[in-house]
User: Fold this.
Amino acid sequence: MRNAINCDIKIKHLTRVEGHGNIRILIKDGQVKKASWDVVETPRFFEAILVGKQWENAPVLCGRICGICSIGHTLASIRATEKAFGMVPSMQTERLRLLLKHMETLQSHILHLYFLIAPDFLGADSAIELIKTHTEEIQRAARLKLLANDGGDLVGGRRLHPIRTVVGGFTMLPDRRKLATLRQRLYAALPDLNKTADLFGSFTIPDFFRETEFVSLQANGSYPFIGGQLMSSDGVVKEEEDYLAMTNEYMVDHSTSKWSKLSRKSMAVGALARVNNNFTALHPSAREIAGQLGLQPISYNPFMNNFAQLVECVHVVQDSILLIDELLGSDWQESRQQVIPIAGHGTGAVEVPRGILYHWYQFDGDGRITKADCVIPTSQNNGNIHHDIKAMVQELADQGKTDHEIRLLAEMLVRAYDPCISCSVH
Amino acid sequence: MQKIRTYLGIEIKYPKTAFFELSSCEGCQLQILNKEATLLNFLDLVEIVNFREVMSNRSNDYEIAFVEGSVTRADEVTQLLEIRQQAKTLVALGSCACFGGVNQLKNRFQNLEWVKKEVYGNHPIETQEVRPLSDFVTVDFSIYGCPVKKEEVEEIVTNLVLGKSIEHPRYPVCMECTANGNICLFNLGEPCLGPVTRAGCDAWCPNNRMGCWGCRGPADDANLRQLQKIMDDHNIPRQAMFDRLECFGGFTSAMKEMDR
Ligand code: SF4
Ligand code: SF4
Ligand code: SF4
Assistant:
């Protein structure tokens, strides 16, 4: 019998994640006394900032909740506003928004996989170190990211904090020739994604499972990213407007971010939740990559989230090619509809890289915001991260792992969720 | 690009550089990572010793500190003072750091308790009035923008490393916009802060047919009364102008002289 382990781990401001969070683990005589995930980010009070602002400010301000998913926030903000005003976007606008959304998904997942996750598996401190040891891989990552960012520039006018996306549509439409070039580049990126799958497939991901409830948008013909019904893997289905019944936010003492739960003590959102809930709606080649990586729904291993992100990269690249074909297959229509504000409220649910995001606004008759609510993916995941750490650390303690191993695996677990902390506090 | 600089045959070390963030969206740091094409060259120019978002090892031995974000809590003041003590050069990165950014819109509510309650209900939460870095420490250089423009960051960093001086354009965004041959948005009936905002972004927004929101703060000699007249002449609601002027915090003091 091994000696029962003791360890006391305090990680202040975990690195290679967006925002500020701490991990605290205390094990005495092999028993986990404490294992917690604490968000200490400073709040910025966006929901209060919006009060009194005219509708056109909402997407400009809310995009600034998060630099990485600014496109998603902008689109959720626009959707909430358009729904409140009873507007329905044109098919062309919907396609362009989805294409823009795909560029964000691709750039964010690639950044996470190569720059934040790969160093753990390759035994490096950072991607900067990998530039020397894994030049080819880092160049591949840079190529894929550049492609996604160029696509963001082309459709949104700017890769982060997009400019052209407004309530009613777009201020300007992309150049058709440049769209055709983007299509070619997307097509040419597929081999890079296959190589990425080979690389990640060669990593052994930790063998840890904990059953939980996965929440996402529900597929309605296609793999969902913008709007529609909400679902959970425990069988809950709600309308977009009823998002509060899905999120049930509450405060805990050790965190400045809110937490969420649904049918169980915690829930999970993000790439793994989406892939688990909507597997059959993925593009066939994305499903093929999933098979190659051993990702089958429903997977309860949180580390699988990294593979789910890769599967989504393949899906969004394939789907972007189809979207561009559709866009180029018809002439440009009017880019923007007129906005006529009315009193009311609206909800915009959008799947951002880290999970489902909701914006809800209430307007007075002049189009001024009287109340706002934003529910961020990472706050919905915080509870799940917390309970995963607890369960995993107990398993590791039982196996008699060292301090160092426990520390590294706890860090990797949190990183697998790709938490976006500044966003979750906003 | 040459990697090693020498002076009188002695090798000169590349400046140790650190990145920090206070309250922000981290978008300005992301802009630096978004420089795929030139990122690798950029990383050759300085030695990055602290960049929590991308690397695990952290060192407190640095010469240049880039600080993103605004100050909104007491612990951030302490952190900022520590950074100032260590860094030879402190650079404010982005409009949050330079002016308070969108975060400072919270300051327009007199009642901070209401703000807290609106978001957190009765749960206790610590926050204070949002302030730019320069309210607490000397800032050596400011890089404006929400987000910063990566070409500009690159140029400024190169100049910093080479010890050259850094000058911002004194003229407004309109100059760049006109040079780019854009249709003026006022002629399309839309508001724009181009006449009063400091150039340097190459008229990013008007190039995309969106009026400028003033994220880079006022140009030298910005004349807000004249702006008000242009807005009035084009029947733009005053509210639309004030929303833009107060958005990023750059015009806070200039706006005090205007009548609402
Ligand atoms: S200035 Fe803008 S982009 Fe930069 S950190 Fe602040 S909100 Fe984000
Ligand atoms: S669009 Fe704006 S920046 Fe361009 S010329 Fe007109 S006022 Fe100036
Ligand atoms: S045009 Fe105005 S709002 Fe847009 S980036 Fe330039 S200064 Fe900022």
